[in-house]
Amino acid sequence: MKTGLALFDTAIGRCGVAWGARGLLGVQLPEQSDEATRARLRKKAPGAQETPLPADIARACTAMTALLGSNVTDLSFVALDMTHVPDFNRGVYDIAREIEPGKTMTYGDIAIRLGDKLLSQAVGKALGQNPFPIVIPCHRVVAANGKTGGFSANGGVTTKFRMLAIERAKIAAQQSSDAPTLFEPELSVAPRRRRT
Fold this sequence. Notes:
Elements: E1 4-10, E2 13-20, E3 23-28, H1 34-44, E4 49-50, H2 55-67, H3 87-96, E5 105-106, H4 107-113, H5 120-128, E6 141-142, H6 156-166
Parallel strand pairs: 1-4, 5-6
Antiparallel strand pairs: 1-2, 2-3
Helix pairs in contact: 4-5
């Protein structure tokens, strides 16, 4: 099977996937343009050519689109080619992939599961290198202080907020100044104004 890539429409914009014989080589959240999205995918899958989606990849894209459209969807069936992913990152991604839509886990929680709370910063770095956002839901990993933590995708934390809001996620500290949209379950994507 040749290495392929394709873009697909979602509620947050045009995402992209690259794939090979062993599964997805990369998932790309929307960039500022389709060409920028393609360029980021080609870094994850050098030599990939735009081509029609094989059935298994089309099924994965349909599931990602459903998830980003507020439908609770299980992505555990999506095959990922982690040949070039470091072992530590694989461990982080395995744990992150267990986080259900609408739920969150802290960097420290993942570090503890890996055996040492002091690995929290390394966990954050691994998530920043995640080649499979959406499928490996790095947006569901937050800081222990109730704040969202960073997000390396285009749009940064705003994109992370949007994805968490679509899933109706909550994080622990209601006093968090950077997460006002995550504490009202009826919110979908945009925060509502409060009447005074």
